[in-house]
Amino acid sequence: MVAAQLKPLRHAKKKPQKLSDIILAQLEAMIIEGSLQPGEKLLPERELALQFEVSRPSLREAIQKLEAKGLVTRKQGGGTFVCDNLLSGFSDPLFELMSNNTESQFDLLEFRHGIEGMASYYAAMRGTPADFEQIQAKHDEIGTSQLEDDFRGEAEAVVEFHLAICAASHNAVILQLARSMSSLLADNIAQNLSILAKRPDIFTKITDYRKRLLKAIISGEPQKAWGASHRHLAFIEEILLKLSQENSRMERSMRRM
């Protein structure tokens, strides 16, 4: 008797998915994979409807659903934007606390070993020619920023280089996690650069390590890319530790004097 009652349910036809829900899913996927970035403006409705080959009412309904989820915001007369606070996984006070804590600086370096190593491995494995072109462009921007002698600008360029690698990994979790921490990482790198400036001779070596990483990724060699990323960060960590120990010795000497 129960089986007879359940039988019609197994053969019940599925309700067709609404077109607006299909568009919504595609837009959400674009946000997750990074095709649509926080703060980015969506194309006008007319152009977006043509791109998706759908009617404007269906597209408008999908955007309204995105807005209800807090993923986009609409500005009167200004268009629709991906919310720029999607990645606020850390509060500003925590950012500031970690940025000014010496131990946290080394913790962040260890974090970078994991996230950048994985991203480099998968970027070498899955990256497309377009991905590699973007990584190369971001790498070149680091060199341009170094000419301006601005540690913060250089740090931001380094972060953008690694975000391009994360994007090439085609792993949404790696990309979004790295993006969520980009401000903190830029602070970390800027502080590291200001400390490393006491040893200007090592900047050439850091550049060489970064070039090896770039070459391994573009050559499509995942293991080499992972190793290059590890050696690059291990070298920076080693120098920072030595400089930290030297500073401690100097402080002790000054106190004795």
What does this structure look like?
This protein is mainly α. Helix content is 74%, strand content 3%. The protein contains 12 helices and 2 strands. Strands 1-2 form a two-stranded antiparallel sheet. A hairpin with a 3-residue loop joins strand 1 and strand 2 (79-82).
Number of helices, counting only DSSP H or I runs of 4 residues or more: 12
Mean pLDDT: 83
Poorly predicted runs: 1-10
Q: SSE string, helix = H, strand = E?
A: HHHHEEHHHHHHHH
Q: What structural category arises from helix and sheet content?
A: mainly alpha
Radius of gyration from the CA trace?
Answer: 24 Å
Biggest sheet overview: 2 strands, antiparallel
Number of strands: 2
Beta-strand portion reads under 5%
- The strands making up the biggest β-sheet line up spatially as 1-2
Which descriptors would you attach to this protein?
single chain, 257 residues, mainly alpha, two-stranded antiparallel ribbon, 12 helices, elongated
The gist of it:
With 257 residues, the chain is mainly alpha-helical. The protein has helices at 2-10, 19-33, 45-52, 56-68, 92-99, 102-126, 129-146, 151-168, 172-180, 182-196, 202-218, 222-256; strands at 72-75, 79-82. The protein starts with a helix and ends with a helix.
Spell out the blueprint of helices and strands.
Layout: H1 2-10, H2 19-33, H3 45-52, H4 56-68, E1 72-75, E2 79-82, H5 92-99, H6 102-126, H7 129-146, H8 151-168, H9 172-180, H10 182-196, H11 202-218, H12 222-256
Antiparallel strand pairs: 1-2
Helix pairs in contact: 2-4, 5-10, 6-8, 6-11, 6-12, 7-8, 7-11, 8-10, 11-12
